[in-house]
Design goal:
Helices cover 94% and strands 0% of the residues. The protein is built from 1 helix and no strands.
Length: 31
Amino acid sequence: MARNTKARGKVVRRLGVNIFGNGKYDRLLKK
């Protein structure tokens, strides 16, 4: 179970970073 939770955390982190990065780029483009 520990391995599964770790893998899930990595995937969630990647998605979160991607969404956060996209939001930053959108703001810069709008400006």
